[in-house]
Amino acid sequence: MTWPLVRYYSADLLRSQRFLLPFLLYGMLLAPLFGGDPGPPPGTWAASVLALYPVSVWLAVTVANTEDPVQRQVTIAAAGGRGRVTTGILLTCLLADLVLVALALGWPVLATAYEYPPHLLAAGVLAHFAAGATGTAVGLLCARPVVHGIGWSAVLGATVVAATGFQRWLPPVGEAARTLVDTPVSLSTLGFDAGLALALAVAAAVVVSRVRAT
To answer: Looking at the predicted structure, is the pLDDT value of residue 120 above 70?
Structure first.
């Protein structure tokens, strides 16, 4: 039942066009980074990692709030439980994050003449996934049924991003961005950050699945 839910939420997101604003925002943030000469990789990716964090929070809130509370209860009943519905939302968010990751990596690879060896591409994937999955975790906890009201969601999401995204020592996001500018780039550190981010996203989904909608 999980993948039909992913298709349902993905189709609903595309039909509503609510994904356009976060996607356009991320594209606008990437344009000055990769529009000219970004320099050799992977330094510029540190900025695109930090930019992805708040965008993925916004995207997760958008996906989680795509249904009103009444429709959500109908979906829960049809799917067989809140856990399945939350899993479908989580996977939809992560798939959307992967699209943004592909944009951040593909743009400089296709538009510049610099070489991107496999280990640097792997570093870019892991670092951006760490930011995207962490943003998904935050977004799920800042959306219904945990937080009601888009204003409160925005305030809480922005506060968490500001408090956690720019601490260079703090995993997953700050550490991932810092690691991209270290020499040599540590794939083990980035792998840890990506794994931790995924664990946070799953934990957030578990919390959400145990909150009754009101």
So the answer is: yes
